[in-house]
Amino acid sequence: MTSISRLSGITAIALGAALSMTAGLALAGEKTISADQISRALQPKQPITRGLSAGAQQVDTAAQAKEATFINSLRNRSTRSLSLGEREEVAQLAATKPKIDLEINFDYNSAEISKASMQAVQELGKALSDPSLKGSTFVVAGHTDASGTDEYNQGLSERRADTIKRYLTEKFGINGSDLVTVGYGESKPKDANAPLDPANRRVQVVNMEVSKTAAK
Q: If one looks up domain 4-45+53-207 in CATH, what number appears?
């Protein structure tokens, strides 16, 4: 693979990877999504404890506390400081969390958001400003397709995640410590059967459902 194939104009990424298994909100094919739709898609899931034994509830509570401790340990960390093990643990936890797809375009061979995509990012900023999401920790995860070297793609995915975080903090006043950025390069394609598909070029936003005080 070479990075030359990447230099073909504006590169597109999709922000998010569908809702969690139980959310069921179909947004595929929509070019613009409102802040209200994003906010509803990212709402924390209600815990299901009815019918569980006291022992099972204790195990569930302990698991949630362990998860909260891990996520809180990533707050205020730079994207590049996360180890491979930490990135994999984030991905495993994010698999069951609320998330959403937005299409974001970046300038050619760049981590700069294109003018055409500003509205989508602004809608995301409005959504994350919703009081109902206040206190949640969000993961912003960058992904690329398989063109280019592994090293190049890893760096590009991290820069794009950082760009989204910087825009949200500077333009909407989102607390930077509420946004955990991580890059996966080409390692976690949305469509593994088509590694060069533009759908694999995305930044995923996930509500980790962890508050600042959850681990205290």
A: 3.30.1330.60
